[in-house]
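Work Package 3 (structural annotation) set out to generate three-dimensional models for the target panel prioritized at the project kickoff. During this period the team completed the workflow that converts sequence records into discrete structure tokens, so that structures can be stored uniformly alongside our sequence database. As a representative example, we reproduce one entry of 244 residues exactly as it appears in the project archive.
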Amino acid sequence: MAGTLLDVQNVTKRFGGFTALNEVNLQVHEGERFGLIGPNGSGKTTLINCVSGSLPNDGGRVLFQGRDITGLPAHQRTRLGIARTFQIPKPFPSMTVLQNLCIPLEYAAPARSHGAPRDDVAAEAMEILRLIGLQAKADVPSIGLNQIEMRKLELARAMAAKPRLLISDEAMAGLSSAEVDDILANLFALNERGITIIMIEHIMRAVMRFSERIIVLDAGEKIAEGTPDQILHNPAVEKAYLGE
């Protein structure tokens, strides 16, 4: 088995008197396709915010490649190799697709700390757009993109950080069945290039098809972990989604 890339140990997060996460544990291995699911309000996005550094956790630790990153801000975690997409993409609307990608390429990745020729940056941006299937839209202002193109741009911007771990947060919400398959193909292709992926998604067929292993959260606690088949046949998971 591949080594552990991400190790979440007893992570707890409270908002006032409300406990959003209660001592959650999980491990994600190098190169793994990992699913994170649960009903609305179960704590999925809060957990990812604690992993990515958007929120500080109130208890527990987050380790990445064996290093304790619990106290690091989000931008330092990005430089270490953790990137994420967001449920609502927010590109720079007046800039072209290519320009939207050049910005994170120039400033986010450690290799850019001393600058890089702009032609090299543009060439690298085009390569990512080709990988994601957006090369034909390179010179289009991002405000002119449709929904799936916007999701692909969000994915491309995350890739600009050269992540070892990519967190895909509901990248398929609101898409048609064919568009879901298109995004899935992108994620499979990225994983084949060695990128570990955590998928947070409500579209069960996508999660079950993509994930090698899944954990389920409910009311801020981990209630199940296993293969897609094990999760599908777990009574606790059925209860969390359907009730008694």
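The CA atoms of residues 81 and 98 lie 22 Å apart.
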